[in-house]
Design a protein that fits this description.
- By secondary structure, this protein is mainly alpha-helical.
- It contains ten helices and no strands.
- The longest helix is centred in the N-terminal third of the chain and has 31 residues.
C-alpha cells in the first residue's frame, strides 16, 4: 500500500522531471536560434514561459543546464541507435544499413537539433565536460560500427578493406549529410542522401549491398 507521503513524493519527482525536460527543450530551441554563447538563462526562461528563478532552481547555472542538454541529446541519439540496431535483422549488413538509415530519419536529422549538436561540437576541445559526454557515447557507437563492418569484411572476404576506416568514413559521411541538412534545408533531400550512403556501401561491400536498389 502506498502512503500519502509516498504518493506526494512521487508526484513531486514527476513534476521535477517534467520541468527539467521543459527547460532542456527550451534550451535546444534557444541554442538553435542564437547559438551556444549567446543563449542566456533569461532566454531559456522566456522560451519555456517560466521565470528565471525556476531555471536557477533546477540547474543552478548555465553550465549545468548546457551539460544536461548535451547529455540529453547524447542519450536520445544513443537510444535511437540501439533501437535501430535491435530492430534490424540479425545480420551485420542489415544492421549497418539500418543504422545509416536511422541517421537520416527526421527525428534525428532535424535542423534544430543539428544546430545544437554542431554548436556543442565546436566547443568540445575547449570544454572537457562536453568532450567526456560525447566521447562516452561516441566510443560505444564506434565500437559497434567497427564490429559490424569487420563482420561484413570477414563474411565477404573483402581483401584490403579496413573495417576501422570504413566505420570512420561512414561517420564522416553522416556528418557531412547532417551539415548539408543544416545549411541547405531547401535543397537537402533525404532520399538522395540515403542513396549516397547506399552507393558508398555498394562500392565497399558489393556482395552485400548491390542487391539494394532502394535505400
Amino acid at each position: 500500500m502506498v502512503s500519502a507521503s509516498d504518493g506526494k513524493s512521487t508526484r513531486r519527482a514527476i513534476a521535477k522531471k517534467y520541468r527539467r525536460q521543459q527547460l532542456i527543450d527550451a534550451t535546444i530551441k534557444c541554442i538553435s536560434k542564437k547559438g551556444l554563447g549567446s543563449t542566456t538563462l533569461a532566454d531559456v526562461a522566456k522560451e519555456a514561459g517560466l521565470s528565471q528563478g525556476i531555471v536557477n532552481l533546477h540547474f543552478n547555472s548555465k553550465d549545468n543546464l548546457l551539460n544536461e542538454t548535451l547529455l540529453f541529446l547524447a542519450e536520445e541519439y544513443h537510444g535511437a541507435f540501439m533501437d535501430a540496431l535491435a530492430g534490424a535483422p540479425d545480420d551485420a549488413s542489415a544492421k549497418l544499413l539500418a543504422l545509416m538509415k536511422m541517421d537520416l530519419k527526421p527525428a534525428i536529422c532535424d535542423r534544430s537539433k543539428l544546430a545544437v549538436w554542431f554548436a556543442f561540437w565546436g566547443e568540445v576541445r575547449a570544454v572537457p565536460t562536453y568532450q567526456r559526454i560525447c566521447a562516452s557515447y561516441d566510443n560505444k557507437q564506434h565500437e559497434i560500427m567497427v564490429g559490424l563492418t569487420d563482420a561484413i569484411v570477414r563474411e565477404g572476404e573483402y581483401t584490403g578493406t579496413d573495417a576501422e576506416m570504413v566505420a570512420e568514413a561512414l561517420s564522416s559521411l553522416t556528418d557531412g549529410l547532417w551539415l548539408s541538412c543544416l545549411v541547405n534545408p531547401k535543397t537537402f533531400n533525404r532520399s538522395i542522401a540515403l542513396q549516397a550512403v547506399l552507393s558508398y556501401l555498394q562500392a565497399i561491400f558489393p556482395n552485400h549491398y548491390l542487391k539494394e536498389n532502394q535505400p
